[in-house]
Amino acid sequence: ELGIIRTVGEPERRFSEDRLRILRALRFASRLGFDIHPDTVPAMRKLAPLMKDLARERVYSEVKGIISGKYAAKILNEYADVVSCVLDGFSGTKLLLNTDVSDIPIRLALISDGFESAHAAKEAIRSLKPDNKTYSVTEKLIDLLFSPDMLAGDRAIEYALENGAEFT
After folding, report:
1. CA atoms within 13 A on the CB side of 109
2. How far is the C-alpha of 165 from the C-alpha of 168, rounded, in Å?
3. In this structure, which of 36, 71, 118, 125 has its CB flanked by the most CB atoms within 10 Å?
4. Alpha-carbon gap, residue 105 to 53, rounded angstroms
5. CA distances, 106 to each of 10, 11, 34, 83, 122 (Å)
6. Please, how many CA atoms are within 13 Å of residue 35, restricted to the half-sphere of its CB?
7. What is the pLDDT of residues 32-57, one digit of tens each?
8. Model pLDDT, residue 152
9. Based on the number of CB atoms within 10 Å of its own CB, is 113 exposed (0-12), middle (13-18) or buried (19 or more)?
10. Number of separate helices (H) and strands (E) present in the chain
11. Cβ(44)–Cβ(83) under 8 Å?
């Protein structure tokens, strides 16, 4: 009712029981535009490094949910330190702010601006174990986004949308 995400009971205990709850909170915030309760955030940040041990397929499912949300850029930027625990080297995104495209490979490619290089972005995304087609398309888009010929991310996205068949 208040648009606030919180744990039932003590946050650190709940996140210790199931570390995937940290990503679920971000997914709900990304989709619904809710805030995360101030008592919950410190526990998320404290326990986020322990998410490295989670099954990558489960992490990928939550990351897809996070990047698909209407408020994805806001959440990814506000909680970049938490997200970087599952996407090594991630520091935030600007490109995702200006798009309403729902295609997962495109959205994955757009967050690549939060990495220091195309290689780092591709490795982080590959670590999530997406299906081969999704990764192949994402990889090509990341190369476009980091290409010196691309003046802006929007041009790469326009190209992808116009020439989608070439990416499969």
Report:
1. 32
2. 6
3. 125
4. 24
5. 37, 34, 24, 18, 13
6. 6
7. 999 999 999 999 999 999 999 999 99
8. 54
9. middle
10. 10, 2
11. no
Tokens of 78: 């506000």
CB atoms within 10 A of CB 106: 23
Least confident of 6-10, 24-28, 142-146: 142-146
- Beta strand pairing call for 4-5 and 35-36: parallel
Please name which of 110, 38, 28, 106 lies closest in space to residue 70, comparing C-alpha atoms: 28
Q: Where are the alpha helices (DSSP H) in 69-146?
A: 72-78, 80-83, 104-110, 118-126, 132-146
Judge whether 124 and 90 are in contact, CB under 8 Å. yes
Amino acid symbol at 102: S
Give the whole-angstrom CA distance, residue 154 versus residue 99. Answer: 8
Torsion of CA 158, 163, 165, 168, to 10 degrees: -60
Cα-Cα end-to-end distance for the chain = 43
For the chain, give the number of residues: 168
